[in-house]
Fold this protein.
Amino acid sequence: ELPEIHFIVISHDHYDHLDKETIDFFKSKKTKFITPLGVTSHLKEWGITEDRLTELDWWNSVNTENLEFILTPAQHFSGRKGSNQNKTLWGSWILRNKNQSLYFSGDSGYDTHFKTIGDKYGPFDIAFIENGQYDEKWRDVHVLPEETAQAFIDLKGKRLVPVHWGMF
């Protein structure tokens, strides 16, 4: 029931962020995919044509349809199998046009990159930041709730939407 989807941004290749069944749904569509380095290897394997794929490194951007997509750092990791861990990049995203800016954290532990991103690109009209990975063992790769609040401050966000909560 969704309208036509023009772009899909992917933060990393973990199963809960890159689902083959969902990608299969978009095979016959015109939707374009923007990913961190290496992640398009999965999409190509699943039948998405090269002309619909864009890969970026941290701090790189692509402009299309009056919208800029910027891949920014995150503190996480990648891989879909034990043998290919960290062979692809992971990241957070900024989407902006001349009037509005949005930040999406992807998965990330709390660190100085939030402040760096906020200083370089903030303030953000809305920030989607993961929240609710309560296990201390995951702290390096997922922000805890109090860290979500600090990341929002560091990013100079105006509105916060907590995402990726209740996953474990």
